[in-house]
Design goal:
CATH topology: OB fold (Dihydrolipoamide Acetyltransferase, E2P)
Shape: globular
Largest sheet: 5 strands, mixed, barrel
Structural class: mainly beta
Strand order of the largest sheet: 1-3-4-6-5
Number of domains: 1
C-alpha cells in the first residue's frame, strides 16, 4: 500500500453517487511539481466513501485549494495511466476561484470521528499529515 499526500486545486465540483449500499464522493485534484521549465502538473482522481464525502461535497468546488491524503494507486486504460487516491484525510485550505472563500484549515478525517468537516476556530489540533 502506498500512502500519498497531494496539495493542489480541485479540477471540478465534487459529486456524490450511490455505490451498492454506500455512497462515494468523487473529485479530481491537480498538483504541481518542479519550477520554471521543469514544472509539471499531475492530475489525481479522488474518492471519499460514506458520510464524510457527502458532508464535504458542498465544500469541494472547482478551484478549491485542498490537501488530500490517502491510498494511492494507478491503473492503465487505453495506453493512459490514471492516478487515483482513496482519500482518508482532506484539508480545505481556503480561497478558490471567483472570490469564493472557505473557512481556513477545515478538516475531515477518520481521526475526528468521521463526521462533517470542522473549521475556523473549532480546529483544536494540527492535521495529522504535518
Amino acid at each position: 500500500m502506498i500512502i500519498a499526500t497531494v496539495a493542489g486545486n480541485s479540477c471540478k465540483d465534487a459529486t456524490t453517487r450511490e455505490a451498492g449500499s454506500s455512497t462515494v464522493t468523487g473529485f479530481s485534484i491537480a498538483g504541481e511539481t518542479g519550477f520554471g521549465d521543469r514544472k509539471q502538473t499531475h492530475f489525481f482522481s479522488c474518492s471519499i466513501w460514506g458520510a464524510r464525502g457527502v458532508a464535504l461535497e458542498q465544500h469541494i468546488l472547482k478551484g478549491s485549494k485542498l490537501t488530500v491524503t490517502g491510498e494511492y494507486s494507478e491503473r492503465e486504460y487505453e495506453g493512459k495511466v490514471y492516478k487515483e487516491i482513496n482519500v482518508t484525510n482532506v484539508a480545505l485550505q481556503g480561497g478558490g476561484q471567483g472570490g469564493q472563500q472557505q473557512a481556513p484549515q477545515q478538516t475531515a478525517s477518520q481521526g475526528n470521528g468521521g463526521g462533517a468537516p470542522i473549521g475556523g476556530d473549532e480546529v483544536p489540533f494540527a492535521p495529522s499529515y504535518f
